[in-house]
Amino acid sequence: MDRPRNMHRGDDHSLSNLQEKDAASFVIATAATCFRDCISDFSSGRLSHPEVACLSNCTVKVGNSFVEIDGLMERVDARLAE
């Protein structure tokens, strides 16, 4: 594996930790965004059918966006490695 000049062999663990933190931040941000956009009625202890549908659509849309961004990043990384 080629490493950036400022990255040493022992830094692989740090990179993994950073990726885990980024993934956790992504999940938290997704939950916050979908909650803000979809949940509007706090009078009941249950989600309404429209709220459930909205949450489902929101998480799918964000997940699809993440997959697209990940694919773009892989292509950028491949170009940088050339």
Give a written overview of the molecule:
The protein is mostly helical. The chain has a single domain (9-81), classed as Orthogonal Bundle (Helix Hairpins), CATH 1.10.287.810. Helices cover 73% and strands 0% of the residues. The chain contains two helices and no strands. It is elongated, with a radius of gyration of 18 Å. The two termini are 13 Å apart. Mean pLDDT is 82; it is low at 1-9.
Quick description:
The chain is 73% helix and 0% strand. The chain is built from 2 helices and no strands.
Which descriptors apply to this entry?
82 residues, mainly alpha, Helix Hairpins, 2 helices, disordered N terminus
Alpha-carbon Rg, integer: 18 Å
Question: Which CATH first-tier class would you pick?
Answer: Mainly Alpha
End-to-end Cα distance: 13 Å
What is the second-level CATH architecture?
Answer: Orthogonal Bundle
What's the β-strand tally? Answer: 0
Shape: elongated
How many separate helices?
A: 2
* β-sheet strand percentage: under 5%
Instruction: Give the SSE string.
Output: HH
- CATH fold annotation: Helix Hairpins
Structural class: mainly alpha
Share in helix = over 70%
Low-confidence spans: 1-9
Q: Give the domain tally.
A: 1
The average pLDDT score comes to 82
